[in-house]
Structures are given as structure tokens and as C-alpha cells.
Amino acid sequence: MNQHYKFVNTPLPYSYNAMEPYIDEKTMYLHHDKHLQTYIDNLNNALSQYPEFQTWTLEQLLVNVPSLPTALQTAVTNNGGGVFNHQFYFSNLTNPAPSQPVGLLAESINMEFGSFQDFQNQFKTAALSVFGSGYAWLVVNAVGQLAIITTKNQDTPLPLGMCPVLNLDVWEHAYYLKHYNLRGDYIDDWFHVVNWKNANSSYRRCFGMEP
Fold first, then answer.
1. For binding Mn(2+), which residues are annotated in this chain's numbering (predicted)?
2. pLDDT value at position 1?
């Protein structure tokens, strides 16, 4: 996706059915082509009235929400956050996927959480704890440590000074067609399609090790 207004919904880097049987084809289509597109359209509509902010990147907008005009703040938080969060979520899916983290991220997960299994358990607990709509995240926090956090609605970790490594969308539209109300089953299936190679690259970028 381009980084400035007007934002465009670029195609997924894989087919809609690529995550089967873990994430179904219809959900992927609706999630990307309908839900994400709505956030992009709403963000573009909001920014169309403010040419002075049209050169800002999406991350600049999200980090500097308090500096934006009051009338623009909610639109950027909700719709800009929706664009960022969805794009990040889709970028971290692949099938077949490595069964465990790789590279420097694998080492850091073992160091911070004790083992990959312990990390999985803690991440699932966090994702299940989100009341209503939101996300579970693996981030690098302000002191350079891995941490698991949750955000509500379309909030992002960026204004908190945190660098995203991985996120899981737990809005019902991300899983309801296949998993109904069983969010835990969706989380278990999601672990089968995590793009750990890409997550490792994101982790390294948090420390300036990759462009």
C-alpha cells in the first residue's frame, strides 16, 4: 500500500483461499476487500478536507493524532488505525508457515517468555481477554523488550512508543464465518499461518537492523 494520501488497497500477496483450512476464503475476501476498503475510503474522505496533512505518512498521522485538528483526530484514530492494523495483520500470514519463530525473534521470545509454548499461552490469553473488538500484539516496548499487549477497536501501539512485531485481529469479522463465537479456535488456527520470517524482519527493523 502507498504510504500517503490517497491511500489505495493493494491486492493481497496471496490468494483468498491461501490460508485454508485455517482462515476461510470468504472471510479473507470480505476482510480485505470490504472491511479494509471501507477504512481506506473513510480515511481518504477525511483527509480530502486537509491538504496540509496529505503528505504525511500513515504512521506520522497515527503517532501525531493529538497534533491534528480536533475534527480529524477521531477519523485518523479509527480509520487510519484500521488501515494500519489490517495491513500489518495481512502481511504476517503465510501458508505453509514455519511452525515456530525464527532468527533473532526466536531467541528473544525464548529469553523473554521462557519458551515458545509459554509465549503462545500468554498471547492466546491476551487475545481472549479483549472485550469486544480489538487486537493482540507482540511489540518491542519503549525499553527495547518484547511485550504482549492488547488494543481496543482500531487503536495501534504507535502512539505508545512501541514497535509492532506481530498482531492478531480479534474483531468478530476476522473469524465469525468459520469459527462462529469460538475465538479460541480461531487463535489456535491463526498460529498455523503466522509468517514468522516476516515477523522476524519486523523485529529486526525495530532495532534498525533492516531497512
1. 31, 86, 169, 173
2. 65
State the fold for domain 25-92. Answer: Helix Hairpins (1.10.287)
Helix (H, G, I), strand (E, B) or coil at 162: coil
Q: Give the DSSP letter string of 105-158.
A: HHHHHHHHHSSHHHHHHHHHHHHHH--SSEEEEEEE-TTS-EEEEEEETT--SG
Is CATH 3.55.40.20 the right assignment for the domain spanning 104-206?
Answer: yes
Are 90 and 12 spatial neighbours (Cβ–Cβ below 8 Å)? yes
Grid cell locating 88: 500489518
Q: Cβ(178)–Cβ(87) under 8 Å?
A: no
> What is the greatest pairwise CA distance in the chain?
50
Q: Note the pLDDT tens digit of each residue in 134-179.
A: 999 999 999 999 999 999 999 999 999 999 999 999 999 999 999 9
**Grid cell locating 181:** 463465537
In angstroms, what CA-CA distances link 134 with 78, 86, 107, 193? Answer: 11, 11, 28, 20
What are the cell numbers at 92?
Answer: 504476517
